[in-house]
Amino acid sequence: MISMTRTDFRDIASIVYKVAGIALSDGKFELVQSRLRKRVVHTRKKSYSEYVRYVQGEAGGKELQSMIDAITTNETRFFREAAHFDFLRDVVFRETTRPLRIWCAAASTGEEPYSIAITLRDHFQQSATSKVLATDINCEVLAVARRAVYSEARIASLPATTRDRHFRQVNGTNGDRQFQVKPDTRGLVRFARLNLVNEWPMKGAFDVIFLRNVMIYFDGPTRQWLGARACAHLRPGGYLFIGHSESLGINPPGYRNIQPAIYQRTEGSEITLPRRPM
Ligand SMILES: C[S@@+](CC[C@H](N)C(=O)[O-])C[C@H]1O[C@@H](n2cnc3c(N)ncnc32)[C@H](O)[C@@H]1O
């Protein structure tokens, strides 16, 4: 079986950090080796070193995306960290009658943006005209998210009323029961590929940004930089949600921490954007 050397690992870690901001500590050696083994085999390279040279070469652009897809961790579930959805419904949605612009910035296979869409639909009913932009760096998970089809196990934790209202049963490939998010709810979400450490081309301010369970993969300076960029993309009074195990540091400029993992952009805050730390 092909094995990865420490030098290969360092080269891969450096590419992944530069391209995606993901910091791979030495403890991730085994994980990286096993996740990339299928890519080495698929591209018919004889070693990880040959694979690294290929990815860095002129012909390797497409493979670089497949490498990032293989490296990212995409764990997610419907209504993960449920308190955030309660806050959306009970505070954010109650504060306004106008349509909201919501950005879900590490959407993975779609459970998170669809949880937002379900919360919107349940609260505003047919008059839900708010829109959710859902982005991720990983093309494979975005394809899953766009199909919006989930196994029975993945929706098992949802109340029966939510399942009935927002999902319809579709035929699974192996005769198993699968469920697709209904068009009304699905239609509130638009998916696009976006790498958080590259340009954010969206124009206009967001009312809400979900940036959850992705910053754990970045180092401290990158986290603070992303926090500041998110602030600049929020309207004053807008909300940033991060994962409960994540932090933006103590008193991040431009924000008020109002609940665990929920920040509000303060009124009148001017944000000076730091350069990307490298
Ligand atoms: C663990 S999942 C979290 C999904 C969801 N936000 C949640 O909390 O359930 C992390 C996601 O971040 C994405 N990701 C990692 N690095 C990224 C980057 N540089 N730009 C955009 N997305 C990234 C991964 O592809 C993955 O889908």
Tell me what you see in this structure.
The protein has 278 residues and is an alpha/beta fold. The protein has 2 domains: 6-71, Chemotaxis receptor methyltransferase CheR, N-terminal domain (Chemotaxis Receptor Methyltransferase Cher, domain 1, Orthogonal Bundle), CATH 1.10.155; 83-265, Vaccinia Virus protein VP39 (Rossmann fold, 3-Layer(aba) Sandwich), CATH 3.40.50.150. It is 40% helix and 19% strand. The chain has 11 helices and 10 strands. The chain has helices at residues 6-20, 29-42, 48-56, 61-71, 83-92, 111-124, 139-147, 152-155, 160-166, 183-186, 220-232, and strands at residues 101-104, 131-136, 149-151, 167-171, 177-181, 189-193, 206-211, 234-242, 255-259, 262-265. The strands form 2 sheets. The protein has a 7-stranded mixed beta sheet with strand order 6-2-1-7-8-10-9. Helix 1 runs parallel beside helix 3 and helix 2 runs antiparallel to helix 4 (61-71). The chain is globular, with a radius of gyration of 20 Å. The mean pLDDT is 95. It binds S-adenosylmethionine. S-adenosylmethionine (SAM) is lined by residues 20-22, 72-76, 80, 106, 108, 112, 136-138, 141, 195-197, 212-214, 217, 243.
